[in-house]
Write a structure and sequence with these properties.
Distance between the termini: 48 Å
Radius of gyration: 19 Å
Helix content: 55-70%
Strand order of the largest sheet: 1-2
Shape: globular
Number of strands: 2
Structural class: mainly alpha
Largest sheet: 2 strands, antiparallel
Order of helices and strands: HHHHHHEEHH
Number of helices: 8
């Protein structure tokens, strides 16, 4: 009986291990670690996105949990997953990351600030912009502007998680997605 159970557990373990490796096209080491981190963030972003698309009910606690996952994979936690030259297959990273390390690092750090701001703004689901002190609809977001994920609030540029936390949650989520898009557009290979 014990031998059958042990063989079964080994078979299940091998199947799960193979499935995990296949999910990332055979990635190993640091490339697999960063692909796993990106997958975690993608899953969190999808969960929040589904709420704003009406595919799931809005839940501020789930927004905060998703924001915490994203924050946990941002800043230094993200940049350490990109040691210079780590371009082994099946990476989607471009070598330009290391040529533009300062830009990449700033985007990674800003992702941390934005995700913390997203958690802070989670209760602001139905808050009109005007009630939170925003000046009209003058956010200065822009996926193509690499660092243009700020907004104007009360006449000054927003730079802190606390300031982002005063905005409508959907606006902050848009800034998070713009930040991700800016990084992916510049530093990730197009999928074939």
């Amino acid at each position: 009986m014990f031998k059958k159970s042990a063989k079964y557990l080994i078979a299940v373990g091998l199947t799960v291990s193979t499935a995990v490796v296949m999910a990332h096209g055979g990635a190993t080491g640091i490339v697999k670690e960063r692909m796993d981190a990106m997958g975690d963030m993608k899953d969190s972003m999808k969960e929040v996105s589904d709420m704003f698309k009406g595919k799931a009910p809005y839940d501020a606690n789930k927004v905060r949990a998703a924001a915490d996952v994203i924050k946990g994979h941002s800043g230094n936690a993200l940049t350490k997953l990109f040691p210079e030259g780590s371009l082994q297959h099946p990476t989607e990273a471009k070598a330009i990351i290391w040529d533009e390390w300062d830009r990449f690092s700033k985007l990674a750090d800003h992702l941390g600030t934005l995700s913390e701001g997203l958690a802070n703004a989670a209760e602001n689901k139905d808050t009109p912009i005007e009630e939170k002190g925003m000046m009209g609809n003058s956010s200065m977001m822009g996926g193509g502007n690499m660092m243009g994920n700020s907004a104007v609030m009360g006449g000054h540029m927003v730079h802190t998680a606390e300031e982002y936390g005063k905005m409508p949650v959907e606006m902050v989520f848009k800034m998070v997605t713009d930040n991700c898009s800016s990084c992916h557009t510049r530093f990730r290979k197009e999928k074939e």
